[in-house]
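Notes continue from the previous slide.

Worked example: a multi-chain complex. Inputs as given:
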Amino acid sequence: MFCKIVSGDVPATIVRETETTVAFRDINPQAPTHVLVIPRLHHPDAASLAAAAPEVAADILREAGNVAADEKLVETGYRVVFNTGSGAGQTVFHAHAHILGGRGMQWPPG
Ligand code: 5GP
């Protein structure tokens, strides 16, 4: 599914793009700001991406920070989440970081 967003076959509200990453708004937002940052490369989860292409994993984290800055979340705080495995809530098996902000956050997360 996310490969089709990278290729443009599935529409998305893209907020940032780099040579290696695409950032777009989540279709079912869980916070006032809910953006996903994905690699253009297909890897099923963040750990697989980091093992195979650590420089792209670093790009994801850099872009998470850039999204937070664009969305004016740096002062109030934001959360970066990599759900990994269905037991942790992962539903799309193409690595992605959730950037969530604009409301109070609970810890520990549910
Ligand atoms: P996961 O549950 O795997 O951690 O996160 C997958 C996220 O992708 C969910 O928050 C879901 O709302 C979002 N999502 C699934 N399909 C699409 C889609 O086609 N477009 C967009 N923009 N978001 C999607």
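Summary box: The radius of gyration is 13 Å. The domain at 2-101 is CATH 3.30.428.10 (HIT family, subunit A).
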